[in-house]
Amino acid sequence: MQTFRKIDWNQAWRDDYKARMRGDDREFWNRRAPSFARHVQDDGADEYVESFLRILNPQPEWSVLDVGCGPGTLALPLAKRVGRVTALDFSSAMIEILRARKTIEGIGNLTEYLASWEDDWQAAGIERHDVAVASRSWGSGDLKEMISKLTQFAIRRVFVSYTVGDGPFDPRIQRAVGREPRSNPDYIYLYNLLHQMGIHANVEMIEQKTRAYVDEDEAVNSLRFMVDNATPAEEEALRRFVSAHLVPAGKLWRLDGRRAVEWAVIWWRVRQEP
């Protein structure tokens, strides 16, 4: 009998992650960086950031390590609230956008590194920080090693977030273009593995409203990442789906059937915390 305690949640994560989008492909994220940066600054982005920061409750004296920082979604507002921030991402395009935004906003206490989960952070000169953060940025590798690495580089606490269910992915779109909806190793894999590792973590949910669009073209462009390397036929099917499912949202438009996306914020104390 496969009981909870006997399930290898680390292997289950790896197995289900194989069906995901190309989350570990640097070129994919380099290509997507400009549109991703615009997306995370648009409708609903502040909602997620402010909710995450409320749970984090950053302190002025903290140093924070932000792993998988993207274009600075959390790193930039965090830098305005804590002593210093170190931001890591494996996409050079994301790091360049972060640098440009940092300069524009005149932020001087943020240091960025081009680095992945697999890199030797210590050899790169990255030291332990009061708090380590990984917001919506897990890789497909060894989940247990990633958890251990975050804990190793944190002095006080670790805060992470991951999808609840399908997260921002809409399985209706995969079906509409003729693809099988991908399975998604949502937050419960991570939480259960933490429990098996003897880490009794806290969980709080963030509800983020789905994005609104100016018109059909903007919606298609925004949702195209769900159909990577789309064929002309898939592209046309995506546009037909969007045309059929856009509904008014004030002066803008949203897809029907989905009002919000849920994220689980999971955090735990590190043994070394004073």
Structure, explained:
The chain is built from 10 helices and 9 strands. The termini are far apart. The longest helix has 15 residues, at 26-40. It has one domain (4-172, 180-212, 260-269): Rossmann fold (3-Layer(aba) Sandwich), CATH 3.40.50. It has helices spanning 9-17, 26-40, 45-56, 75-79, 92-105, 143-152, 171-176, 187-196, 216-223, 232-245; strands at 63-67, 84-89, 110-114, 129-135, 154-163, 202-209, 246-249, 252-255, 260-269. With 274 residues, the protein is α/β, with parallel strands linked by helices. Helix 2 runs parallel beside helix 5.
What distinguishing features does this structure have?
274 residues, alpha/beta, seven-stranded mixed β-sheet, two-stranded antiparallel sheet, 10 helices, 9 strands, globular
What's this, in brief?
The protein is of the alpha/beta class.
Give the topology.
Blueprint: H1 9-17, H2 26-40, H3 45-56, E1 63-67, H4 75-79, E2 84-89, H5 92-105, E3 110-114, E4 129-135, H6 143-152, E5 154-163, H7 171-176, H8 187-196, E6 202-209, H9 216-223, H10 232-245, E7 246-249, E8 252-255, E9 260-269
Give the count of helical stretches.
10
Name the average pLDDT. 87
In the CATH classification, which architecture applies? 3-Layer(aba) Sandwich
Query: What Rg is obtained from the alpha carbons, in whole angstroms?
Result: 19 Å
Distance between termini?
A: 42 Å
Outline the low-pLDDT stretches. Answer: none
Helix proportion range: 25-40%
The share of residues in extended strands comes to: 15-25%
Main pleated-sheet profile: 7 strands, mixed
Oligomer: single chain
Spatial order of strands in the largest sheet: 3-2-1-4-5-9-6
* Strands, count: 9
| Secondary-structure content class | alpha/beta
What name does CATH use for the topology?
Rossmann fold
What's the CATH C level? Alpha Beta
Number of domain units: 1
